[in-house]
C-alpha cells in the first residue's frame, strides 16, 4: 500500500485495473485449462474403452480362424489387427499408460502371420504329396498292364506291391507324435532305398527300368513332401500355443489400461476444482483492498481542491489550495495557485501592449507607400525587357510558340508565322486547324499538347511533321514544356527544322549499309538482318539457311577484260541472283566476288533445295557485257539455324564459308551442306588431341598393372600394363575416355612409345628389387604397321639392358591382326628373335579364321571379357568360351580369360580346363608401387585350388546348369514385374530336365547323387509353379517367404550338380 501512495493518479488507476484484469484472466485461463483437461481425460477414457472393445473383437476373430481356418477369416483378422494397431498409435501420443501393450500386439500380429503362412505351406505340401501319390499309383497300374518277360513281370508286381504298401503306411503315422512320425519316415526312406537297389537287379528291361525309376523317384519326392508337411504341422501347434499366451498378455494389459485411465481422471478433476477455487478467493480479496485504498487517496484531496476553486471564482485572488499530494491532484492545486498569482500581472501589462501596437501600425503605413512607388518603376522596366525579348524571338530561325489548353496560340515568333503565311499578331488566338487542312496532323499536335498539360511533364518529339502554307512537308524536332498562367496550364514549345539534316542522314545510312556497285546490302546490313532473321526463327520455331557464294572463274574474266567489265558483270549477276530469291530473303555482297544469301521461314532443310538450285542457275547463265558473252558459275556453302549447339551469326558465316570451300573442291558449280555434328565431333577430337599432347608433355599419364595368374596353382604369370590419365580437373580417367580421339592418329604412336618405354623401365626396377614380373603391353595397329617399328623396338630394348627374354609381351587386337596377315607374321617372328612374345587380344570378337590362327606365331589367346562376364547365366557365351578353349587346345596355344570377377567364374573356367585368368576376382589394376605388396599377400582361393577339370562327357551337364540359372533369372525377373510372361515351369521343359531324363539317366541313373539331383530338380520346379500361381491369385504377402525358399533350393540344386560332376 505504501507503493500505491507514491504513485501518480493515472498509475494508480492503471495498476488497479491491471491487477483486476490479470486476476480475471487467470480465472478464465484456469477454467479453460480445467475444462480441456477434463475433456481430454474423458476422451482418453472413451478411446480406452473402444480399444478394449476392438481387442475383444480381435481375440474372437483369431479364435474363430483357428477353429475354421478359412482364408476370408484370416484377412478379416489382419484388418482388425491393423485397426487395433492404429488405435494404439493414436493413444501413444496422448498417454503413457499403454505400457507393454504395443510391442506385445506387434509380436501377436507377427505370430499370427506366421501361423497363417505355416498353414498355407502345410496345405501346399499335402497337396503336392497327394498329387505325387496319385501319380505313383497311376504309374503302378500302367506298368502292371504293360507287356514284359514273365520273370520281369513278377518282379514288377512284387516291387509295385511293396511301393503301394509304403504309401499306405504313411497314412497310419499322420496322427503320431512328431518324434515317432519322424522315425517312421526315416524307416520308410531306407526301405525305399532298398527297393531301388533291388529293382536294378531284378528288372533288366530298359523300359520297365525307366518306369520303375520314375515310380521310385516320385515315391521319394512323396516321402519328402509328407515329412515336410508333418514338420509344418508340429510348428503350427507350437505357434497356436504362442498365440494363446500372447492373447492372455494383451487382455491383461487392456484391463490395466482401463483401470489406470479411470484413476487418472478422478485425480485430474480434483486438482482442477482446487485450483479454480483458490483463484476465485484471491480475486475477491484483491478487489476489496484496491477499492479501499483508492477511496482514501483520491476523494479527500478532490473535496479540498473544490473549495479553493470556488473562492477564486468569487474574486478572492489571495486564496490558495493546501493540497500536498504528489499525483495529478497535487499538480492541479499548484496550477490554481500559480494562476491566481498571474492574474494581477496580466491585467497591468495589457494596457502597455495596446500602446505599442498603435505605434507599430503608423510605421507600417509609411513603408507601404514607399513599396508602391518601387513596384511601378519595376513594371516599366519589365515592359522594356519584354519588347527586347520579342525582338530576339522573332530573329530566331526556329519555331517558338505557346498555346493554351484550347489549342489557341498565345505566342508565336516570326519564323512560325512566315511558315503559315501570316504575321505573329494575326496568328494569336487562332488554332493550327485554321491554317492546316491535314486533319490527322492537327490531331497529333493537339494530342501532344494535351499530354503535356495533363502530365505536367516536358516531352520531345524527334520525328515531328509540319506542312507550311505552300503545302511542303517539313521534318521537325519539337520540344514542349508545360507552364502555368494564372490557374491554367499552357504549352511552350520550340521546333527545329531538320528536313535537310534527315536527307543527309538518309544518304549516309544508304552508303553505310548498301554496296555501291550492286546496290545490295553490305556486310554491316547483312549482320543486322541475319540477327533479325535468327530472332524471328527462334520466335516462330522456323528455320533459316545461310548461303555463302563465291563466283567460279570471275578472277580470270576480271584480269583479262578489265575491272570495269568485271564490275558490270557483278552488277548484272547480283540483280539476277536477287530475282531468284523470294521477297523475304536477303542477298548481300561481302566484297569482290563473294555473296551471302539469308533464306528465311524454311519448314525444313529440303525446302531450301529449289531456291539453291535457282540461285546456282542464275549465276551460271551467260551474261552479255560490252559485246562479250561471259560465263561464270558459283560454288555455295549452306548452313542452317537453329542447331543443336548454340551458335551466333559469325559462326554461321564461318560454317557456310567452310562448306563453300568443300563445294569448290568437289568440282564447283554446286552447293554443299555444312555438317554441324561432324564439325562438333572434329572440334571435340581436336581439343582432346591437343589436351592429350599437353598431358603427355606434362607427365599426366600413368600406368596401372593388373596381375595375370594360374588360378589352380597360384603362379603369377605377369601383369598387363593399362594406361590411365591423371587429369588435373577430371581425376583418373580410363582409356575409353580419351583413346578414341587419337585412333589412327600420329599422337597415338607417341603415346604408345611412351607406354612401351615406361613399362620396360618398370620391369627393370622390379628386377632390381628381385621381382620377376613379365609385362604385356597393348600395341595399336597404326604403331604396329610402321616401317620403323622393329628398329624403334630394338632401340627401346637396348635402353634397358636389365631386361631378359620373356619379360615383354605385346598384345595386338585380333581385328588389327587380320589386316595384313603376312606382314604381321613376319614382325612377330622378328620380335620373337628379340625375346618378345605375342598375344592375340579380345580373341573371338573379330572375324576369327583358322588359317590366320595357324599362320600367326602368337602363343597366347586372350578370351574377351564380354564372353566371360555372362558365362554363368548365358549358355551362348559359355558355348563360345568352350569353342575358343577347344581351338587353343587344337592349335597348342595357351588361353587366358579376361574379366574374371567372382569365385564362381573361376570355378567354372577351371572345370572347363582354363587355368590362366585375370580380373577383379584376382586383383584390380593398381599402381606399380602396390605390386610388391600384392605379390607378398597373393594366395589363390581354396575353392580354385581344389577345383578339378570335368570330363568332357560331363560338359552337357555344365551347360544345362547354366541354362537352369538363366531360367531362374527369368522367373525372378517376372516376379519383380520386369517381363510380361513367366518362363515355362514344367520340369521336363528345361535343358536340365532333358538331360536328367535322357543322357543323365543312362550314365548316372544308379548313383544316389543323381537321384538326389533329380528329386531337387523336381521340387524346385514344383515350387516355381506355386510361385507363379501365388502371383496370379494375388497372394503377394506369401511371395517373399516362397522366394527365399526358391533361392535356397536353387543353391541346393547347384550343389547337387557339383557333387555329381566331381570325380
UniProtKB/TrEMBL annotation:
Keywords: Coiled coil, Membrane, Transmembrane, Transmembrane helix. Residues 229-263 form a coiled coil. The keyword Amino-acid biosynthesis does not apply. The keyword Protein biosynthesis does not apply. Residues 542-676 form the GGDEF domain. One of its GO terms (molecular function) is catalytic activity. This is EAL domain-containing protein. GO terms for biological process: signal transduction. It comes from the Bacteria. GO terms for cellular component: membrane. Residues 385-429 form the PAS domain. The chain crosses the membrane at residues 269-291. InterPro entries: Biofilm_reg_signaling (IPR052155), Chemoreceptor_zinc-bind_dom (IPR025991), EAL_dom (IPR001633), EAL_sf (IPR035919), GGDEF_dom (IPR000160), HAMP_dom (IPR003660), Nucleotide_cyclase (IPR029787), PAS (IPR000014). It comes from Chitinilyticum piscinae.
Amino acid at each position: 500500500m505504501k507503493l500505491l501512495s507514491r504513485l501518480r493518479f493515472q498509475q494508480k488507476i492503471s495498476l488497479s485495473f491491471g491487477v483486476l484484469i490479470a486476476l480475471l484472466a487467470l480465472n478464465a485461463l484456469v477454467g479453460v485449462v480445467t475444462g480441456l483437461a477434463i475433456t481430454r481425460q474423458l476422451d482418453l477414457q472413451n478411446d480406452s474403452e473402444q480399444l478394449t472393445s476392438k481387442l475383444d473383437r480381435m481375440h474372437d476373430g483369431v479364435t474363430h480362424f483357428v477353429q475354421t481356418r478359412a482364408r476370408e477369416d484370416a484377412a478379416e483378422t489382419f484388418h482388425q489387427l491393423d485397426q487395433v494397431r492404429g488405435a494404439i498409435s493414436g493413444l501413444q501420443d496422448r498417454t503413457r499408460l499403454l505400457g507393454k501393450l504395443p510391442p506385445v500386439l506387434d509380436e501377436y500380429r507377427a505370430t499370427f502371420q506366421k501361423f497363417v503362412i505355416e498353414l498355407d505351406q502345410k496345405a501346399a505340401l499335402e497337396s503336392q504329396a497327394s498329387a505325387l501319390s496319385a501319380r505313383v499309383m497311376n504309374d503302378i497300374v500302367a506298368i502292371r498292364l504293360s507287356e514284359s518277360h514273365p520273370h520281369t513281370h513278377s518282379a514288377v508286381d512284387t516291387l509295385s506291391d511293396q511301393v503301394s504298401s509304403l504309401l499306405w503306411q504313411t497314412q497310419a503315422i499322420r496322427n503320431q507324435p512328431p518324434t515317432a512320425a519322424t522315425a517312421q519316415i526315416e524307416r520308410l526312406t531306407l526301405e525305399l532305398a532298398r527297393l531301388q537297389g533291388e529293382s536294378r537287379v531284378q528288372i533288366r528291361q530298359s523300359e520297365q527300368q525307366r518306369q520303375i525309376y520314375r515310380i521310385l523317384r516320385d515315391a521319394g519326392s512323396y516321402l519328402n513332401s509328407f515329412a515336410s508337411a508333418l514338420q509344418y504341422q508340429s510348428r503350427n501347434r507350437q505357434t497356436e500355443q504362442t498365440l494363446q499366451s500372447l492373447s492372455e498378455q494383451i487382455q491383461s494389459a487392456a484391463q490395466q489400461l482401463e483401470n489406470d485411465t479411470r484413476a487418472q481422471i478422478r485425480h485430474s478433476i480434483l486438482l482442477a476444482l482446487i485450483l479454480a477455487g483458490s483463484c476465485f478467493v484471491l480475486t475477491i480479496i484483491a478487489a476489496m483492498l484496491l477499492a479501499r485504498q483508492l477511496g482514501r487517496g483520491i476523494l479527500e484531496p478532490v473535496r479540498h481542491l473544490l473549495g479553493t476553486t470556488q473562492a477564486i471564482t468569487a474574486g478572492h485572488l489571495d486564496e490558495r489550495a493546501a493540497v500536498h499530494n504528489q499525483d495529478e491532484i497535487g499538480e492541479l492545486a499548484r496550477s490554481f495557485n500559480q494562476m491566481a498569482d498571474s492574474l494581477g500581472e496580466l491585467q497591468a501589462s495589457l494596457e502597455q501592449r495596446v500602446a505599442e501596437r498603435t505605434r507599430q501600425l503608423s510605421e507600417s503605413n509609411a513603408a507601404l507607400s514607399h513599396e508602391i512607388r518601387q513596384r511601378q518603376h519595376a513594371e516599366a522596366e519589365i515592359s522594356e525587357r519584354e519588347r527586347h525579348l520579342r525582338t530576339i524571338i522573332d530573329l530566331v530561325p526556329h519555331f517558338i510558340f505557346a498555346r493554351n489548353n484550347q489549342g489557341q496560340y498565345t505566342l508565336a515568333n516570326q519564323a512560325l508565322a512566315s511558315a503559315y503565311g501570316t504575321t505573329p499578331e494575326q496568328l494569336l488566338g487562332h488554332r493550327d486547324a485554321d491554317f492546316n487542312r491535314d486533319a490527322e496532323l492537327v490531331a497529333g499536335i493537339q494530342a501532344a499538347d494535351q499530354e503535356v498539360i495533363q502530365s505536367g511533364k516536358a516531352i520531345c518529339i524527334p520525328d515531328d511533321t509540319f506542312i507550311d502554307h505552300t503545302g511542303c512537308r517539313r521534318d521537325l524536332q519539337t520540344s514542349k514544356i508545360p507552364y502555368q498562367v494564372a490557374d491554367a496550364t499552357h504549352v511552350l514549345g520550340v521546333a527545329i527544322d531538320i528536313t535537310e539534316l534527315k536527307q543527309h542522314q538518309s544518304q549516309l545510312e544508304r552508303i553505310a549499309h548498301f554496296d555501291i556497285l550492286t546496290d545490295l546490302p553490305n556486310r554491316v546490313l547483312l549482320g543486322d538482318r541475319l540477327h533479325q532473321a535468327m530472332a524471328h526463327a527462334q520466335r516462330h520455331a522456323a528455320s533459316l539457311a545461310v548461303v555463302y557464294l563465291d563466283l567460279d572463274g570471275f578472277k580470270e574474266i576480271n584480269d583479262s577484260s578489265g575491272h570495269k567489265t568485271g564490275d558490270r558483270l557483278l552488277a548484272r549477276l547480283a540483280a539476277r541472283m536477287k530475282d531468284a530469291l523470294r521477297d523475304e530473303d536477303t542477298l548481300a555482297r561481302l566484297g569482290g566476288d563473294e555473296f551471302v544469301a539469308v533464306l528465311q521461314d524454311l519448314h525444313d532443310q529440303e525446302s531450301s533445295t529449289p531456291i539453291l538450285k535457282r540461285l546456282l542457275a542464275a549465276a551460271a547463265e551467260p551474261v552479255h557485257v560490252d559485246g562479250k558473252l561471259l560465263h561464270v558459275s558459283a560454288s555455295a556453302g549452306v548452313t542452317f539455324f537453329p542447331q543443336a549447339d548454340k551458335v551466333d551469326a559469325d559462326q554461321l558465316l564461318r560454317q557456310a564459308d567452310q562448306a563453300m570451300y568443300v563445294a569448290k573442291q568437289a568440282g564447283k558449280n554446286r552447293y554443299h551442306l555444312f555438317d554441324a555434328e561432324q564439325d562438333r565431333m572434329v572440334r571435340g577430337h581436336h581439343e582432346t588431341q591437343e589436351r592429350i599432347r599437353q598431358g603427355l608433355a606434362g607427365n599426366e599419364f600413368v600406368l596401372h598393372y593388373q596381375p595375370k595368374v594360374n588360378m589352380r596353382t597360384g603362379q603369377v604369370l605377369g601383369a598387363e600394363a593399362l594406361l590411365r590419365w591423371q587429369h588435373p580437373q577430371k581425376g583418373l580417367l580410363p582409356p575409353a575416355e580419351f583413346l578414341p580421339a587419337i585412333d589412327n592418329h600420329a599422337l597415338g604412336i607417341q603415346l604408345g612409345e611412351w607406354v612401351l618405354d615406361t613399362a620396360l623401365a618398370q620391369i627393370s626396377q622390379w628386377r632390381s628389387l628381385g621381382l620377376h614380373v613379365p609385362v604385356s603391353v597393348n600395341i595399336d595397329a597404326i604403331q604396329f604397321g610402321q616401317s620403323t617399328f622393329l628398329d624403334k623396338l630394338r632401340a627401346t630394348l637396348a635402353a634397358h639392358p636389365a631386361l631378359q627374354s620373356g619379360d615383354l609381351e605385346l598384345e595386338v587386337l585380333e581385328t588389327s591382326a587380320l589386316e595384313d596377315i603376312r606382314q604381321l607374321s613376319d614382325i612377330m617372328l622378328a620380335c620373337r628373335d628379340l625375346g618378345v612374345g605375342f598375344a592375340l587380344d579380345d580373341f573371338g570378337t573379330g572375324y576369327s579364321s583358322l588359317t590366320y590362327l595357324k599362320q600367326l606365331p602368337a602363343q597366347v589367346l586372350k578370351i574377351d571379357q564380354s564372353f566371360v562376364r555372362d558365362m554363368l547365366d548365358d549358355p551362348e557365351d559359355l558355348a563360345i568360351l568352350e569353342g575358343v578353349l577347344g581351338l587353343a587346345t587344337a592349335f597348342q596355344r595357351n588361353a587366358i580369360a579376361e574379366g574374371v570377377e567372382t569365385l564362381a567364374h573361376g570355378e567354372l573356367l577351371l572345370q572347363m580346363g582354363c587355368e590362366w585368368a585375370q580380373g577383379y576376382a584376382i586383383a584390380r589394376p593398381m599402381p606399380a608401387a602396390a605390386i610388391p605388396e600384392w605379390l607378398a599377400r597373393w594366395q589363390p582361393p581354396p575353392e580354385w585350388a581344389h577345383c578339378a577339370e570335368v570330363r568332357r562327357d560331363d560338359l552337357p551337364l555344365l551347360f544345362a546348369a547354366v541354362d537352369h540359372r538363366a531360367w531362374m533369372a527369368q522367373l525372378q525377373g517376372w516376379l519383380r514385374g520386369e517381363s510380361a510372361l513367366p518362363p515355362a515351369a514344367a520340369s521336363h521343359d528345361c535343358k536340365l530336365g532333358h538331360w536328367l531324363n535322357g543322357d543323365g539317366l543312362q550314365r548316372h541313373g544308379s548313383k544316389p547323387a543323381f537321384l538326389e539331383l533329380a528329386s531337387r530338380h523336381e521340387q524346385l520346379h514344383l515350387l516355381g509353379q506355386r510361385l507363379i500361381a501365388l502371383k496370379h491369385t494375388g497372394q503377394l504377402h506369401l511371395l517373399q517367404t516362397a522366394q527365399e525358399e526358391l533361392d535356397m533350393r536353387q543353391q541346393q540344386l547347384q550343389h547337387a550338380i557339383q557333387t555329381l560332376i566331381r570325380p
